[in-house]
Amino acid sequence: MAETADVVVVGGGVNGASIAYALAARGVTRVVLCEKAALASGASGRSSALVRMHYTNEWDARLAFASFPVFKHWTEIMGGPSVFTHTGFVNDVAPPYTDALRKNVEMLRSIGINTVALSPGELRDLQPFANVEDLGAAAWEPESGYADPAATVEGFRRRGHELGARIRQWTAVTKILRRESRVLGVETSAGRIDAGAVVVAAGAWAPRLCREIGLEIPARVKGLDTVQVTRPAALAQPPPSPTWSSSTTCREATSGPRAASARSWASPARTGISIPTRRRCFRRGHRRSAPRS
Which residue from 4, 123, 268, 284 has the least number of CB within 10 angstroms? Predict the structure, then answer.
């Protein structure tokens, strides 16, 4: 006999887990989340997890701003220990992009985001260790930082479960069932689930699922590099989490005095998309390219 649900959420990363929690918190009584492996085993678990609101797209910025209180007040809202580390956030750009950054900061401030544009000299005052010779300007968000990605997903799972959501790990959704334009549910590795709504939050695997019901999602897997380096002993405190104009991000690692540039990625073997993996050794770190959606 098929299991029934009001909503099936496909994907157990931060998006899927937070959606399942949000639905349960708003009174949807039969929510089922299906994850083909363990929660946060895809891109979310490997994310640099920056918690910041600096986006050039206004709607992305508004979404980040609306979600920021959840991280800032995690213990009060979600319960359990905080997953957020407050460091501040810096986004710096080369001289040709100075005017664009300042206009972007004006847009962010109009939304209500606490951010300010800095000159290279002002950034040096903020971070005396920084080399600002080739910079044009920087945006500074004093309230931002980064989260523990796996703990964030687990927190959403825990609260969703407490509110009645059913979490099915190691349960792969193999097909979305429909009749004409109506969704009927999903087929999974553990059987069928009948549902009136399906939310696909499957990251790199979403295009494949959606293509089978006639929805083309223009998403692709992209290879990105990570590097881990030792923080100099003279730098006693971790720096703010910066993003440079080259789209490189850097933040303190959770396992000791190290800084790491990192992005989300998914294994090409698991997505079915072949992307070469490169390994290079550096004097003070290890660099590895890994694909992401």
Answer: 284
